[in-house]
Amino acid sequence: MAPPAKATSAPFHAQTVSLTLNGENKTLQVEPWTTLLDLLRHDLRLTGTKKGCDHGQCGACTVLIDGERMNSCLQLAIMQDGKAITTVEGLAGEGEDLHPMQAAFISHDAFQCGYCTPGQICSAVALVNEGRAKSRDDIREMMSGNICRCGAYPNIVDAIEEVLAEQQSGSRHLEAAE
Amino acid sequence: MNKHASDLKPEKIVGGVATDQRHESAHKHVSGTAVYIDDIPEPAGTLHGCLGLSTVAHGRIRAMDLSAVRAAPGVVAVLTAADVPGENDISPTGRHDEPILTDELVQFFGQPVFCVIAETRDQARRATLKAEMTYEELSFTVDIGALDPLNDKLVTPPLTLKRGEAGEAIRQSPHRIKGRMRVGGQDHFYLEGHIAMAIPGEDGDVAVHSSTQHPSEVQHMVSHALGVPSHAVTVEVRRMGGGFGGKETQSNLFAALAAIAARKLGRAVKIRPDRDDDMKATGKRHDFLISYEAGFDDDGAVQGVDFTFAARCGYSSDLSGPVTDRALFHCDNTYFWPAVRAQSAPLYTNTVSNTAFRGFGGPQGMVGAERVIEEVAFALGKDPLEIRKRNFYSTTTRNVTPYHQTVEDNIIERLVSELEADAEYWRRRRTIQAFNANSRVVKRGLALTPVKFGISFTATHYNQAGALVHVYTDGSVHLNHGGTEMGQGLYLKVAQVVAEEFQIDLSNVKVTATSTGKVPNTSATAASSGSDLNGMAAQNAAQQIKARLVDFAAEKFSVPADQVVFLPNRVRVGNQEFTFADFVRQAYMARVQLSAAGFYKTPKIHWDRDKGQGRPFYYFAYGAACSEVSIDTLTGEYVVERVDVLHDAGRSLNRAIDLGQIEGGFVQGMGWLTTEELWWDERGRLRTHAPSTYKIPLASDRPKIFNVKLAEWPENAEPSIHRSKAVGEPPFPLAISVLHALSDAVASVADHRIFPDLDAPATPERVLMAVERLKRKAKSLA
């Protein structure tokens, strides 16, 4: 029925990028203008990372680049050479079903429509690792780059606070939410 | 997550009604595996569309040169009005005033004129910019401030509600107030923007994945646009990344264009507008100008009130009729107006056509009611809470609404008195007075406001629903209903109802994507009606199957029907017990039909719009909120310090979900009344079309202390699904308490002697202007 899509770009524009994606080494051909978000969602079919505003203003596309939280819509794919990217699909560690932050988001009902959730979780994981947040007010302030239009903020902050407390008490692993 | 123990004779099922179950997609949401439409693998050869939007607010298209667009790389087709094979109209109320693509007349800046279809989304977007348009510009109106509600152009017939002689009552009252208030609009900013993907099939059929709250309407619009019967169009949606009313009618545009292109080109077509285009080209919450006049006695009891609710509707009717009607239906909020007249003015403007948004005009109506109360309190130098209570509906007298429905289920007095005590309103009132007396720059404010929200679609025929339930021979259950999931937990609640009915664990019930092919002729998931309607329809389907199963067992085992009992995960027949799976397998072998289509229509309701009388609402949901804010009188900046909410969800189906709806609704309502400001420039261009310029509440904006409680004691006076109450919209106007707390804080700069006259949204700018105004007035009075 439908003819296959023709090559959508002039291949001679493509540049080679080597990066680690969710723990896996990848060598990719990317156009210089492709954003990391489009590379993930479109080329690599990792659709967990969401496109909300495409302007770096809503936080739905947050991923971890070398452990730092970044809006992937504002990052060019070509700039990621040698970097380690972690998306929501790659958060859970070896042998883990879920990352503790993911489990905490479930046990605290920290979402409604779920569209901002992958970005919230990536952002929250980095926040905890940054080690700067000490209080609920800190969490609220430092999570203010991630919009939740459903307004699930109370539960999002609860979830992050729980993981933060766990981490501060030295135990990384939480019980899976019952 | 629920781990199910293999208890052979459990006392209760896991996940029945009134239990706090996690959202059915929780594990998928946190792992990024929940599939939204843009995540569905695209069929080979999928094309992408981009809208070409008008660049004048009002004008005639004199020339449209699309040759450069057509020649641009990757472009496969450019659709204009001439390419619509059927009817070029997506007016949801049949007023034929909303073209898919306009052909000649442009009526707002950002109106879709053409649609580019290209191999990639990027190519489509780039090509769109190459259009050469020539317009003959016409005069235009963006704001309603200068319009006459009685004489200027309306988009749909207005409504007047009338009980008693308001004018006379006002004239004869010892005190009178008169004023006007602006209440701003609101962009939905669903995190998942609009999207539609159409896939052509055989015989000219088309399947559309549409992010919509109203699949049946999308189906109708697509079929009209294509000029094919409804049976040729199937619309499906598994979930939306937020809707809030913004996907009740606004999805039609994208679905219709994707379907037209897919039919024409024989390839799948996806349209996912850029966020800015989404905000420019789709409708928002109506902003209102509320004019009011009221008469009251020395105690603050209102004797008569007269309202005009003028709304900026945009260029077409869309849902402006029912939205402005609902504003009138809520101009009483929880108050008995002994004599009342309220009229709507759905005004035409050269702006995008405004649409549904959580509350659907109701919150704007309540803002009007609360404004009157506040100003009465000011006029008498009394605490607004005292005036509120003085005017509450009673239970046996003083209980008739402006639309002549008797309020039969009033619980507002008890709710408010409990919240008043819980939140320590009077103690804090004194503390705040003392604080303000000693604080030069920072001032605090406090307000407690009630909510009464009418539940049912005011278009009576919308109050019906269908569901489809299949029981498979392994005892697992497939559930489908007409409601759509946008994060509100509807799929979960309806599944809980079905699990409860069959007495099987929730994990045995699967809800599948909403599809016009499974449950037809559905209503929008809107008006907070989702679980009320679909829950009842699903229960009805399950009960039909159960009745067949009981008949089968009674006959086969020769026992009376009342000895066939559905126990948790098993069925007792006389003295024997079978697992549910074993039982249904026996029924299957005996050729019992294990599938049913359920149906529900809300009883009792009726509405005569011409007379302005009837019972449009099946019941009311109630709530109350107490908010405390602090403002900086030098900058206008503010913080919401503490919020206490007591809300009525009847006998809640799922308290965890309902609490989330209340918290989220409150935060969203707070955004509407505080920071979210829509702004058009002198050319009629919306300049707040991205989160950079349009300020949505963030985690840091939510109240510092946020105590949200469901009242333990209410149950629905009507036999709704398990006596629960709708909870989607009613919490939204709880945020009116924030607006009034801000007003209270502003008033403190002039010792509460001057009415702050604070419009919404009460942005820091507006708060500062009000503070300055009051300071000036206080000085001139001194």
How many beta-strand runs of chain B? 29
H-E order of chain A: EEHEEEHHHH
Give the number of helices of chain B: 18
Roughly how many Å is the radius of gyration of chain A? 17 Å
Global structural class of chain B: alpha+beta
CATH architectural name of the largest domain in chain B: 2-Layer Sandwich
Protein model, in words:
Chain B: Its EC number is 1.17.1.4. Chain B: InterPro entries: Ald_Oxase/Xan_DH_a/b, Ald_Oxase/Xan_DH_a/b_sf, Ald_Oxase/xanthine_DH-like, AldOxase/xan_DH_MoCoBD1, AldOxase/xan_DH_MoCoBD2, AldOxase/xan_DH_Mopterin-bd_sf, Xanthine_DH_Mopterin-bd_su. Chain B: Keywords: Molybdenum, Oxidoreductase. Chain B: One of its GO terms (molecular function) is xanthine dehydrogenase activity. The complex is a heterodimer of chains A (178) and B (782). Chain A has 178 residues and is an alpha+beta fold. Chain A has two domains: 15-90, Beta-grasp domain (Ubiquitin-like (UB roll), Roll), CATH 3.10.20.30; 100-168, DNA polymerase, domain 1, CATH 1.10.150. Chain A has five helices and five strands, in the order E-E-H-E-E-E-H-H-H-H. Chain A has helices spanning 36-43, 100-107, 117-130, 136-142, 153-168, and strands at residues 15-21, 24-30, 62-65, 68-71, 84-86. Chain A has a five-stranded mixed beta sheet, covered by helices on one side. In chain A, strand 1 (15-21) and strand 2 form a beta hairpin. The longest helix of chain A has 16 residues, at 153-168. The radius of gyration of chain A is 17 Å and the shape is globular. Mean pLDDT of chain A is 90; it is low at 1-10 and 171-178. With 782 residues, chain B is of the alpha+beta class. Helices cover 28% and strands 23% of the residues of chain B. In chain B, strand 17 (464-471) and strand 18 (477-481) form a beta hairpin. In chain B, helix 5 crosses helix 6 (251-265). Chain B is globular, with a radius of gyration of 27 Å.
